[in-house]
Amino acid sequence: MSRPAPSPIYTLRGAGGALNTLHFSCQGGDTPLLFSGSGKGSIHIWNLNTRRALKIVEGHAGSSVIWVSTLDCVLCCCILQGRDMQVCLWDLSEGRCEVVDSVWTGSVGFCQCSTLETSPGNFLLAFAGEQTEEIKIIELPSKSQVCTLVPDAKLGMVMCIKLLQVRSGPLLVAGYEDGSLLLWDVTQRSRLSLVKAHPEPVMCLTFDTKRLRGISGSSEKKLSSWTLDRQNNLQGCVTLVNPGVSQLCVRGDGKLLASAGWDHRVRLFGWKKLRPLAVLQYHTDMVQSVAFSDHQDPRQRLLAAGSRDQRISLWSIYSEGGDTG
């Protein structure tokens, strides 16, 4: 049985559009931050102490912002992806607000970028390319091209990607329009594994490098859990009450999984056994993004959910030492 659902501890309003993406930065100094990107092209940087917008950045010429991240743990360099086919790096230090570099992707889809720090100050940036099934990976800040990944088979448009670091080096997991998941070796520029996880397009995925296990969602009424190894194993699935998942996120301690639902709800599962724990009901429209905060103190960690209703809900769901299953 699911546990009684909590209520949000507070909400953030005034984003000016549907919330497409959320990103926490809570380890740089005394001010925990939440970045949000909206369908109207605005990026809000929320001060979680005052619960107000510290800064509002109008980027991408009014085009929808579909992904936001930071390249370090302080309010210094923010990286944004918009529907104008641009990925822009913003310098937000010392009150500045200016684009210092940009990358043209050529992609007309909604596939969010992914970054991976390979060494101090150096990052890989993966993004969907101009061609339907193409994924490009470059190195930042040099913008030198690392590789272009195109599957041999016709899998349709690339829908979602995730860079991850394992002992052998950087890998990339990609979900495609035909429901396939493909594991790439970035260094060798080669395909390692392919699995058909869904009958519908893969809408979202996330991966836990500690357990070497991932999970993905689509427009159907289930989540698929998998390991991408030589056996192409599908470990199991979770049946949902209503169809459609926008985003999935595993908490940093590996105990909780959150899903953003098309049915306006956020669902929590124990990551170990995928046991349903709670259904969070607050929003009045599709939930499009979920993110766990990265506070150093686990007791301060939050879950944020962003919706098409233009509101961000924040939830405190920390359970010290509890086995969520």
TrEMBL record:
Q: Do you know which InterPro entries this protein is assigned to? A: WD40/YVTN_repeat-like_dom_sf, WD40_repeat_dom_sf, WD40_rpt
Keywords of this protein's UniProt record, alphabetized?
Repeat, WD repeat
Pfam families per the UniProt record, alphabetical = WD40
The record's section on Gene3D superfamilies has:
YVTN repeat-like/Quinoprotein amine dehydrogenase (2.130.10.10)
Show which residues constitute the signal peptide: none
Which segments carry the WD repeats? 280-317
**What is the designated name of this protein?**
Uncharacterized protein
- Native species: Mola mola
